[in-house]
Amino acid sequence: MVARGMNNLQAGTESSVPFFSTLLKMPGISEIVRKSSVDAHSPGSFRLSWDALLFDFDGVLADTEPIHFSCWSELLAPFGIYFDWEFYQRNCVGISDRRMVERLAAERNPPVAWEEIYPHYQRKQAIFRDRLLAQPPFLAETLRLVRELAAEYKMAVVSSSGRTEVEPPIARAGIRDCFQVLICGKEVANLKPAPDPYLKAAELLGARRPLVIEDSDAGVASGKAAGFEVLRVSRPDRVSEELRALLARPKFVHP
Q1: Percent of the chain at pLDDT above 70?
Q2: For the chain, what is the radius of gyration of the CA atoms?
Q3: What is the set of domains in the chain, with CATH numbers?
Q4: Sheet containing 154-159: which strands, arranged edge to edge?
Q5: What is the enclosing helix (H) or strand (E) of 157?
Q6: d(CA 236, CA 132)
Q7: How far apart are CA 21 and CA 44, in angstroms?
Q8: What is the average pLDDT score of the chain?
Q9: Cβ within 8 Å of residue 64, ≥6 positions away
Q10: Which of 115, 146, 151, 159 gives 57 a disulfide partner, CB atoms 3.0 to 4.6 angstroms apart?
C-alpha cells in the first residue's frame, strides 16, 4: 500500500529512488508514510489521494472526437442537419449518441423525427471503425502514460460510446491489459451526466477514492455526481502533461 502510494507521487520522474530518498527526509513525511499503513478507518490514519484512475475515452485517451464529428456530419447531411465543429464540441461531446440525434432532429427547422435517422446509426458506426483503422487515434505520449500508470494504479475506461467503438482500438494499441474494467454505452442504466458509469467502474474495481479524467461537461458532471475528484483535461495532446502534473503533487488526505 505504501509503495504504491509513494510511486504515485513520483509520476513523471525518471527514477523513483532519488525521489523517495529526498521525500522521506522532509519533516513529517516519514511519520505520514508510517501512518498510511494503518487501517483506513482508524483515527489519525492517513492515505494517499487516489486508489484508481477512471479515464474517459473520446477526447482523453484517444483523439477521436474529430473522427466522430466527420462521421456524424456525413450521416446527417442527407436529413438536412448541418453543424460546425464548435457546435459539435459544445453540444454533442460526452452524451449518448441517441440523445444527440434526438436533440439535433428536434432543433432542425423544420424538425424531423429522430426515429427516421436512428436506423442509419449502424452505418455511422461502420464509417467510424473504418476511419479508426486508417487513422489510429492514440498519441504516443498517452500510450506511454497509460503503460506506466498501469503498474501503479487500478484503472478503468468509462465511455458513453459503445464497446465496439472503444475496446477494439484499445486492443490494437496494445493497452487493453492496462485496464481491469471497461464501462461502455448502455452497460449502465443511465449514461453521463448521470453518475452511474463512474459509480459502476469504481464498484467493479473496488475503488473508494478514484480520480476521474474527463474532457466534457457531461463527463465532469458525471464524475462529480458520483462524488469523485475530477481532472478536466484541456486537449488530448495535453493529457499526459496535465495528469502527470497532478499525480506528482504530494497530497495526503485524512480518512
Answers
A1: 79
A2: 20
A3: 48-62+140-253 (3.40.50.1000), 65-134 (1.10.150)
A4: 181-184, 154-159, 52-55, 210-214, 229-232
A5: strand 154-159
A6: 16
A7: 25
A8: 84
A9: 57, 58, 132, 137
A10: 159
> Who's near 26: CB < 8 A, 6+ residues apart?
none
Exposure string of 162-172, with b = 16+ CB inside 10 Å and e = fewer, is beebbbebbee
Render pLDDT for 183-239 as a digit per residue (tens, 0 to 9): 999 999 999 999 999 999 999 999 999 999 999 999 999 999 999 999 999 999 999
pLDDT at 250: 63
Q: How many helical (H) and strand (E) elements, i.e. helices and strands, does the chain have?
A: 13, 7
**pLDDT at residue 39 is higher than 60:** no
CA dihedral for 66, 70, 76, 77, sign (positive or negative): positive
Residue pair 51/7 in contact (Cβ under 8 Å)? The answer is no
Reported as a pLDDT band with limits 50, 70 and 90, residue 33 is very low
- Would you say 195 and 226 are in contact if contact means Cβ atoms under 8 Å apart? yes
